[in-house]
Amino acid sequence: MYINVKNLLDKVFSLLGIIVLSPLLILVAIAIKLDSKGPVFFKQERLGLNGKVFKLYKFRSMCVGAEEKGVYETKGDMRVTRVGRFIRKTSIDEFPQFINILKGEMSMIGPRPTLTYHPWPLEDYTEKQKKRFEVRPGVTGWAQINGRKGLPWNERIKYDVEYSTSCSLYFDCRIFLKTVAKVVFMKDNINTGETVQKKYNK
User: Fold this and answer.
1) Whole-model pTM over 0.85
2) Which terminus in the chain has less CB density within 10 A, N or C?
3) What is the DSSP secondary structure assignment for residue 113, as one 8-state letter?
């Protein structure tokens, strides 16, 4: 029952977010175009509900082709543009995911959508880990307020599974409020190193 209400609320808040934040979104888009060559938006294939592949939207914060040089961003990463550093620190780069929510591909709260090949391919997840795909992926989630980018992937997935089996309005409100605090204080938004455990450590 809550899932149906959650899906409706997600779309309402996303539409309101786009309308209210439209002046900021336009300014960011212009800044990105003026700062570096390439498109305003970065699109990337991710795993969504039930492992279905979809294209996630972000404001582009790196130079074109940056993903070919590795998944992880590190402190002082030269691939990140000047505007990119600001929008990544403030999480503004995530705002285009309102579009993903309106398309029914994502939720405001849920496990962050993983790459199709990272931390490992879908078929390499254990049956228990695959429970993270039983809910729509989110812009923020339980793992993000418990370590965010510094958390090893096997630990992130444990938090994701916990969320997928305990999803509730109270849980979502708790995650949302703690996410706001993380964003305001710009905590845990840079990877500190490799966060993928070997398959046998999952």
Assistant:
1) yes
2) N
3) P
